[in-house]
Amino acid sequence: MSALEYDGGSKFMRKAKENPFVPIGMAGFFTIVGYRLFRLKSRGDMKMSVHLIHMRVMAQGFVVGAITVGVIYSMYKDYIVKPREELKALQQETKQRTPQMNMD
């Protein structure tokens, strides 16, 4: 890769295309943190440390969930969809060769 192609934005976009659930996890993380920080003043009698721990657990849970869904989706594509496509392509190739063999 040249130095021009290796900037932060293009690397992020390339990684996002490879695994689209990571940016979804990041967006959820920042959304949860932003919302919980916004709600910080109306936490009632809850201690600050407890509020921050709840915020962290919710945000991390969302990220772990998004990455888990991404891994399951990736495994589905690699182990179910891809073999079906390869089998279908092999069957198409076999059908195309069969008439040629009969003519010889």
From TrEMBL:
GO terms for cellular component: mitochondrial membrane. Its main location: mitochondrion. The chain crosses the membrane at residues 20-38, 58-76. GO terms for biological process: mitochondrial respirasome assembly. The keyword Protein biosynthesis does not apply. It is found in: Mitochondrion membrane. Pfam families: HIG_1_N. Residues 1-85 form the HIG1 domain. The keyword 4Fe-4S does not apply. Keywords: Membrane, Mitochondrion, Transmembrane, Transmembrane helix. This is HIG1 domain family member 1A. It comes from Esox lucius. The gene is HIG1A.
